[in-house]
């Protein structure tokens, strides 16, 4: 499964009400570091298929979800488990670092 595009309208259904943990990437098209981690997140979405959902929220099109999470800079990553944030991090990171962060958090 590839990453899932999430909007302000689908945030609760896709993220908070998910039956598996969800990594949420708050990003924007103009953000260089966001583009840097994009391919890694796509690969991780396939690696963690069935165990973790990886969702992407474009902050320009969906400012409410970002505001509700207190996002001030992007990329901002959050891990939700049972509807609650269990971990978060900001900035770009290598795929291996993202992978170990996800494994530790779920």
Describe the fold and architecture.
This protein is 37% helix and 25% strand. With 106 residues, it is α/β, with parallel strands linked by helices. The protein has a five-stranded mixed β-sheet with strand order 1-3-2-4-5. The model has no long low-confidence stretch (mean pLDDT 97).
Report the order of strands and helices. Answer: EHEHEHEEH
- Portion of residues in beta strands equals 25-35%
Cα-atom radius of gyration: 12 Å
Can you list the strand order of the major beta sheet?
1-3-2-4-5
The portion of residues assigned to helices is 25-40%
Distance between the termini: 18 Å
Total of DSSP H or I helical runs spanning 4+ residues: 4
Number of strands: 5
Residue windows where pLDDT falls under 50 for at least 5 positions? none
Profile the largest sheet.
5 strands, mixed
* CATH superfamily (homologous) name of the domain at 1-54 and 91-105: Glutaredoxin
Look at the helices and sheets and give the structural class. alpha/beta
What is the 3D shape?
Answer: globular
- Average pLDDT, rounded to a whole number, is 97
**What is the CATH fold-level name of the domain at 1-54 and 91-105?**
Glutaredoxin
Q: Quick one: CATH class of the domain at 1-54 and 91-105?
A: Alpha Beta
**Assigned CATH architecture of the domain at 1-54 and 91-105:** 3-Layer(aba) Sandwich
């Amino acid at each position: 499964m590839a990453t899932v595009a999430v909007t302000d309208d689908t945030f609760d259904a896709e993220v908070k009400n998910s039956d598996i943990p969800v990594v949420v990437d708050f990003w924007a098209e103009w953000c260089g570091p966001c583009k840097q981690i994009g391919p890694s997140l796509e690969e991780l979405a396939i690696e963690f298929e069935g165990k973790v959902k990886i969702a992407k929220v474009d902050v320009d099109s969906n400012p409410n979800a970002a505001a509700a999470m207190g996002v001030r800079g992007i990329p901002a990553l959050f891990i939700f488990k049972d509807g609650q944030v269990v971990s978060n991090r900001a900035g770009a990171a290598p795929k291996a670092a993202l992978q170990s962060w996800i494994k530790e958090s779920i």
